[in-house]
Each structure stands twice: as C-alpha cells, then as structure tokens.
Amino acid sequence: MTPHPVRIGIDVGGTFTDAVAVDATTFALLGQVKVPTSHDHPDGVAHGILAALRELQDQTGIDASSVSFLAHGTTQATNALLEGDVATVGVVGVGRGFESWATGRLRSLAKLQLTPGRGLPIRYAGVRDAEDVVEVKAAVAKVVEDGAEVVVAVQPFSVDDPLGERAVVAQARSQGLLATATHEITGLYGLAKRARTAVLNAGIMPRMVETADLVERSVEAAGITAPLMVMRGDGGVMSLPEMRKRPLLTALSGPAAGVAGALMGERLSEGVFLETGGTSTDISVVRRGRVQVRHARLGGRETYLPALDVRTVGVGGGSLVRLDGTTIRAVGPRSAHIAGLAYACFAPAKALVDAKLVTVAPKQGDPADYVALETPDGTRYALTLTCAANALGVVPEDSYAHCDPEAARRALEPLAKVLGLSTEDAAKAVVRQAVKPVKAVVDDLVDGYGLDRDALSLVGGGGGAAAVTPFLGAESGLDWRIAAHSEVISPLGAALALVRESVEKIVPNPSHTDVLAVRAQAEQAVIAQGADPAGVEVDVTVDPQRNLILAVATGATELRTKDRAAVADDDEVLADVARTLGVPGSEVSELARTGHHRALGARSRPKGFLGRFRPVAQHVRVVDVDGVVRLHSANAHVERTSVGEASGTLTRLVDEHTRVGDGGSRAPAVWLLVGPKIADLSGVLDRDQLVALIGAELKSRTPDEPLVAILEDRG
C-alpha cells in the first residue's frame, strides 16, 4: 500500500487506453499501463478502463482505498461529432409572436453538416404558454412521436428568465427523457449560437450518458470510491453528474489533457506546449500560468463551447519525407502508420545495408512522392522525421523516440545520395523542412498572445516529442525541454488536472455587485463538484465593450501541500531570473516574499535600439518554492503589506496607478500573492470592480497574513 493518497489518470484513445498512477503529494509517477481500447466490447470503452485499472493495481500494489482522485479523458464526444453519430433532437421552442418566429427558424439547424452528408437530425414543436402544462406535454409528445430521443428547450431571452425552458425540461424529464435547456449551457445572448450549442450537447447526450454509467460501474468494480472526473476541452475536469448534463464540454478534450500535464507536471507558466504524435502536432499556449481558451467551431459554425485554442499541424514523429527530384518537397502530412510501414530507424542497422530509396503513395489517390527504403530482401521501411532527428543526435537517450544512432544514419544514407548531401546535412534538411510549418504557427501564437520570448519555454509532449521540439528550440533560439514521461503526458494531465468551471454572462453596465455575483457562481460550481474551498482560484475578466463578465474557477479536490525535502537553490533561481531578464545576476534583488512566492526584480531599459530612449523600468519575476517563474512583468510596482492592512493600502495604490485617457479610466493590472495562490485580477479595468474583487479574495484570510501586490500600469 502506498504511504500517500494516489491520483489516477486515464486517457481513452482510438487504439490504446493509457492509465497512470501518481503520488498525490509528490506528483511522482508510480506506474503506467497500456491496454487496447475496447470499442467492440458490449460495455464499450468502459471495459478497457476496468482492465487498465486492474492492471495498474497489480503493477503498483495500490490499494483501492488509497485512490483519492480518478479522471479520464476520452475522444468519444469529439468522434461522435466528427462522424455525425448523434441522436435525433427534439427542439421545443417557447414563446409568442417574435419569440415563436425566432425559435421556429431553428429548424434550419438540420442543415448543419457535422460530416459530409450527415446533418443534425432535428424535430421541432412550439409552445406559446409554458405555464400551460397540457400544451407543454403535447409539444414534448409531438417531437418524441417524430423520433426525438432527447429534448432541448429554447426561449430567446432565457438567460434572463429561464422559467419557460425549465417547464419544458421538467415535463420531458418527468416522462423519462433526457433533456437540456439553452440557459443551462451558457449565460450569453445570441439565440442561434446558444441553441446550436445546446442542440449539439443534446445530440451526444444519450451516448455519453450511457458510457458514463458503464464507466462508473467499472470504477466501482475496481473497488475505487474516489470521485470520478472527466476531462473538459478547456484543460480542467468536471464531475460525472455535470458531464451527464453537459457532455459537450468533453469535446475537443484530446489536447487538453496534455496541456494540463504541462501546467501541473512541468510547471509551465509561460510558453508553448507541443504534443506530437505519429501524424500531427497539437500546439497550444500557456500565458502567465493560464491556458488560452476560445469558443470552438463545430460543423463549421461557432458555438459557445469553451475549448483550448489549439492549432494542429500535419507533422509528427512518423511523418514521411516527400521528394521532388533532388529536393525535399515536404515532410508529411502522411505518416508511416497510414502507409502501413515500420520506421526504418527502429529496424536493426544491419537490415538497412544496401537499402535503396523508392517512392510510394501511402493511400489510394495520394501523390507517389513519399519516399521509403526497400532492402535487398524486398522489405520496405518508412523514412520518417524520427529517423532524421535520431541521425542528428537531437533525440535524448531517455526519450520514447530514441533509437540506435547507427540505424538512423543508415536510414538517411540513401536519401543523402539522392540529395547530393552528407548524411548529417540530409537529416538537417528533413528536420528543417518538417519544423518550418510548426515554427510558423508557434511564431504566430507567440506574437498573437504577446508572450514574453525571454521568459517562455517550449515544452514537448507525446510519443513523437523529441522529433520536433529539440530542433525547433534550436531554430527559434528558445528554451525547450521534453516533458518527463512525455509518452503518457495525457493521462498524467488527467491525473493532475484541476476541477474547472467557467461562467459567462452579459450584464449591461455591470456593477461590482454583478461582478462579484458571477465570481461567486463560478466558485460555488467547482466547490459543488468536489473542489476544496480553501484552494479555489477565480480569474475574472470584464469586457466593458461587450458588457461581458467571465469568471473561471479552478480548484483541486484535495488541498495540495506538496511534500518536498528541499526548496529550489537560491543561486540557481537568481541565475535563471537574471537570464530571462538579460542582466547580470548581481543586479537581481528580492523585492518581496510570502511563504510560497518570491518577487525578484531588476531595473533596466527595454532591449533594442529604441530602448535607450525609454525610461528605466522595474522588471519583475515571481517564482514559487520550486524556483519556477509563475508571473512576470516588464514594468511593475511591488508592494508588501498584510491582509489586515491591504484594504486601505491597495485602494490607494489602485487609485495612484489608474490611468485616464480618451477611452475613460483604466485601473492597473493587479496580482495578489497570498497564501499558496496568485490571485489574477488583471482582467478587470474598472476601479470599483477591482477593489470589490480584492475584497472578495481576502475575506477568508487572517489579518496578520503577509500579502504582496504586483501592479502593472495599463499602456
């Protein structure tokens, strides 16, 4: 039996189901297993999950009672949408006059193409008076008679008054039907987009609920009583009851688990995460310790589904080289897997002696310009990006993608002859061509999100990470590393992920009371799903142009106090901070500290020619006890105070740093270091809203507790 509680993460992939066990206190990997995904079993993927759990218990000796948390990620919702495998949805519109006309137009949702030739199966009925039980019952009966398997209640202004939608949902559920309403999906206006999102949610609900029930039984069969969580598409997890109501939130969660692993396991706070498989690389951004999320497009149309901003490039570890005469045309998008060939570099070196270069078409209709190796006995091998990376020696020896260097060099020799290059130069040409589109996307994300190039890192995950990240880091001049246990970064992310909930609401001219109400709603939502109240963090953004309030709450199901034998070495921390600031270590000083964080800084002018004409600024880096940079600013004010004195001190500072311009006043960006948290209040521009949120963050703290405020003037 393990001495500490254990967290288990499971990733259900198309081919394999991976499971890991992680020490909940030290985050150490205790064990990992891989079993075939059981698509064809009567219990579906749940059977494979049970097999993985039992094998993991046998391998590690973990007692079921020591499991404190279990989460799984699945591609089931995504695949159902991509394949058009959805249930028939009965839309019940509520309202008279204009409302009736507006909801009636939602019949056009049937034209939404999830996949070529597969639209959304929609049935429609209208209700004029939702208080008329007979009329509501008749409308539900009509859509069911027309073949609906699940019901969606729609009313134009239900985000303000949901009573009509609730009446329809209650009637449907009383008849044993699955049902949902648009106000349960989002608090945003926009009838068409809100209804579209709700209908997609309903379309996958029957299948997802059935799977959830089977998975729950599998976990119980393994003797585990810990709460079962499911990965969301925005990088967090949700409880099983919430997943049953809003299964759409699990769509596009494939890359989300990997990013969660980079955030928690790799402590990535500023940078780009690249998850490389055999065929493609998913690229996403972490800025100031937060994943970047946007509303996803499904079926070619925008929805209110929050999901990671992920860019996918058709380059992976198994990508095949394409040749145009004596020039490398491209690398990918087809891979060794698609061509049905083994990687040449993983063959015995002696098997590649006297191999010759041949061209192939991986799939019928593909151009025959993909190259492969053919040995004297007629065996063919794929010449891949992984082969080239190994031939250059950039793949770390402990990497999942590492192979015999001699085999890799022999694999590149036939290509080198055709190109008229040395083996090393041929390998460089392959890797450079492969990372070109990846680098373009990374550069676009770095510039688009305004990432600090001096502070960011490239982190590679996935089985093919070492084929892309090292060379990309060298080409970009950026810090890079391969995530520990990168081949299981997704189940690791599921094991370490935080409970997450986002609440969006349109409030014309919102007051600080409105902002606090949305914040409280998000906070209570994650607590209701099992998050420890003491560790919940809520980030609030107020967009005055759109009258939009967004609150994102995250929290762990148990308060984490990581057990460490020692904290980071002071000299190493100072040297690392000095490097990111571009100054000598002697110029870095400690500006403030709490029990969990230190604010380090140095005064300097901005870099570049124009920097010499700019004033000297206070550059700040906030590091945690691990020495990881958790927050950075190019020009900040740092204030030490206590919780008891904070109200007056911070109100004064906010007033001093509020800037007034043609567009009105803009309060400073504020971060609070208090206890184990970094409270991010930078998304609020209004002075009164900011002061109110500061009060909300501090209300549960003791008066003598130290507090550090970081204030950054708006440009």
From TrEMBL:
Any one Gene Ontology cellular component term annotated for this protein: cytosol
Domain named Hydantoinase/oxoprolinase N-terminal: residues: 7-174
Family annotation (SUPFAM superfamilies): Actin-like ATPase domain
Domain Hydantoinase A/oxoprolinase: residue ranges: 194-501
InterPro entries for this protein: ATPase_NBD, Hydant_A_N, Hydantoinase_A, Oxoprolinase-like
GO biological process: glutathione metabolic process
Superkingdom: Bacteria
Name under which the protein is recorded: Hydantoinase/oxoprolinase family protein
